[in-house]
Amino acid sequence: MFEEIRPEEIEKRSFAIITEELERSGITVDETNAPVIKRCIHTSADFDYAETLVFSEGAVAAAKELIRNGADIVTDTNMTLAGINKKRLARYGGSVHCFMADEDVAAEAARRGVTRASVSMERAAGLEKDVIYAIGNAPTALIRLYEMMSDGIYTPQFIIRVPVGFVNVVPAKELFLSSTVPHIINRGRKGGSNIAAAICNAILYDL
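Now predict its structure.
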């Protein structure tokens, strides 16, 4: 039998169900991180995120502070760009960027024999603002950010590291676990553009 519920109450009911199921499973999530974890579960219907999401100390507070101070968000897919609530981000002076489809990025990547994601991260490093990186697809984006940091060229202000897949995905996610860069990481193969957007929105909605 279907549950009768008004359209505007569907999301609220969904989050209530998530909370109930976490409690029944004996899974306790940190109160500060709970909005992010629950929105990832809501987006994917996958409760593994309650156990595989890793937050650096004070990560959510750090991301909120960056947004309040007008930070931009850079992502590696237009799907994530489309999914992030840009109007809410704009309230604080921020914008969302994705350079992956830019013709000059594609041309440079082809000339150098690297991925567009790598070149996109280099372009993002040139933005004259603080940046939150929301990476949901390309491990090479993470690898390039780490290389730039290791070479002393650029240090990211915050990284959401949730690419999905099989090739280089797991080790690329692990690169920043021991760094001082604030981060939210989903360990393992799972993730994706929708999860990257969900994390950004969870932080935006909780401001």
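The first strand starts at residue 53 and ends at 55.
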